[in-house]
Structure formats: C-alpha cells, structure tokens
Amino acid sequence: MDYPVTVLWVARFAYHNGEVVQQHTHDFAQLMLVLKGRGQWLLDNAQEPLRAGQCCCLPPGLRHGLICTEGITTLDIKFRIHDPDLAAVYTSAAGVAVATDALHVGLGDALRAARGSWAGPRTAACLTHVLWKLASDESVSTAVAPEVAPTATAGAEHPLIRRLLDVIRSDLAGPLSAEDLATGCGYSYRHLAECCHRIIGMSPCQIVLRERLALACQLLRYSDYPVKAVAQRCGFRTVHHFTRRFSLALGSGPAAWRRRAMDSEARRGIVLAPDFDSMGQLTADGWQDATLNELRQSPK
User: Fold this and answer.
1) Residue range 221-237: mean pLDDT, rounded
2) What would the mean pLDDT of 209-217 be, rounded to a whole number?
C-alpha cells in the first residue's frame, strides 16, 4: 500500500539548558511535539514562547530554530508529503498550536511503530492518520497499548464491539456507567454483556478498564503529565485507585512503569529512509551539509 507520506526520521530528542538551534530550512516537513521544558521558538523573523504541550508544524522551506531555557524534550518526526491536498493543509497549519492528549498518543504510536517490524509502512500509517486529523482539528484515535491488548483481537472487528469502543473512547475521562454503555450501544446492559462475553470474552466493564489502562500507558510513556493527571484523564476516581488497578494489570505502579519505559527508550533518532541524512539535508543561510555542532550551539 502506498501512503501519502514517507517517514524519514523519528526521535525522542532532548535539548540542554542554554542550547540554541540556529534557524535553518530543509526540503522535507517536520512535526515537533514538546513533552517538557521551556524556551523560545524561532520561526522566520519571529520568536514565540516554547512550552510543554505544544506542537509545531514545519512545512518544507520554513526557517526555524529554538532556544532552550529549561531542559526541552520533544517527539520529532521528519517526513515527505506526496499528496498535494495533504501538503496544502499542512502548509496552512504551519506554526505553533496546543497539542491534545490524542496527539501525544498518535505521535507516540508512530515512534513505537518505528521500533517494530514493518517500521516504514506502520509509521507512515500512524503519521498519515495524525496529519489528516490535525488538518480537520479532530482527535486521533487511541491505540491499545500492547501490555493490555485484548486476548481476542478478532472480536474487536465485530460491529457491536466497534460501537462499544467508540462509546468508551469518546469519554474515557468520564465515569462511563453500565447504563451509559448500554444506552450508547442501543441495547440493555444484560444483552450487551452477553454479546461481549460471546464475542471477545470480556465484560463491558473489563473493556472499559482495558481502554483506560491502554491510554494511561501511552500518556505515561509519551507525555510529561504527573501520575495524578494521567489518572484523571483516564477516568480513575483517585490516584490510589489508578495505582492499584495499574499494578494489578501490569505488575508495577505507574511511576515505576514510566521510569522503566523511559529507560528503555532509544535516545537517538531512528532513520527509516536508508538514504536520509538528517544533518546533510539541512540548509541555513545558503550553506549545505550542516554539522550538528553548527546547528546546535550554546550562546556566547
């Protein structure tokens, strides 16, 4: 299958206090999601505040750089867009915007896909989904984290299970009572529960818990939200309830799980296009083949 984008490079990237990335341009597109830290964006001749929770859309040819004042970490994807319509809407979205929780998850999926088999196509699929949703200002769907994936994945394709998942994912931060699930699916809860057990081997409430934990895993791995905030965004009544459920399902508390996940993250970029040189492709003020030291300087 041909995708409208080719992913060149993905990374979880860290910048140090006082570090400056000089303004530069390149002939590919780039999307940066700020996980933590503070500083300044340098976009053409303007400066804008840089802070956690932002995303920056950088179409080809846009001069950009940054100044790090407080340890910045980003999810960073470099790519080429082949579809003219998608290229046009991405160019129109150029600049800085506030990222949603779903964008954290979508880009996290792309980074995780880059480490697996079929990395190029899977990452392209994730990124294509993110870009079109960005263009339409909608949320991206939340994928199920592998640690809490359902045992009967085939059942998830059943129309009733798809409908139930839509109901659940539309309000994961909410209480999602049995009545809410039944009403959303158009059945009595008893009938819904019987169907879920027959199709996927889980009760509706178990599916809700699985989805809450799946989103929690994504936010713990790919965002800088405190554990309490993750609990709230995933619909757990208290952080203690969240910690207990998380520990039972995954064998450790959320804070310990996050540390282990972060320690296992690769700290360098993952090149998916064999002929792509992330530094040699850059141009700034007319010079080619920029080195890392030329682009990343500490202020004098």
Assistant:
1) 87
2) 89
Q: Are 126 and 111 a contacting pair, CB within 8 Å? A: no
| Cβ neighbours of residue 244 closer than 8 Å, sequence gap 6 or more | none
Count of residues in the chain: 300
Q: How far apart are CA 86 and CA 128, in angstroms?
A: 9
Would you say 60 and 26 are in contact if contact means Cβ atoms under 8 Å apart? yes
Please state the domain extents for the chain.
5-141+266-287, 156-251
Which of 26, 64, 59, 28 is CA-nearest to residue 46? 64
Note the pLDDT tens digit of each residue in 75-92. Answer: 888 899 998 988 988 888
Whole-angstrom Cα Rg for the chain = 21
Calpha distance 135→15 (Å, rounded): 28
* Phi/psi of residue 5, nearest 5 degrees: -130, 150
- pLDDT tens digits for 109-148? 776 666 554 456 767 777 777 777 666 654 333 333 334 4
Whether the CA torsion 81, 120, 161, 203 is positive or negative: it is negative
* Cβ-contact 258, 250 below 8 angstroms: no
Encoded amino acid at 74, one letter = T
The architecture that CATH gives domain 5-141+266-287 is Sandwich (2.60)
Alpha carbon 183 to its chain's center: 31
List the CATH code of the domain at 156-251: 1.10.10.60
- As a whole number of angstroms, the distance between CA 18 and CA 282 comes to 22
Same CATH fold, 156-251 and 5-141+266-287? no
Place of tokens 């282990």: 260
Q: What percent of the chain has pLDDT over 90?
A: 33
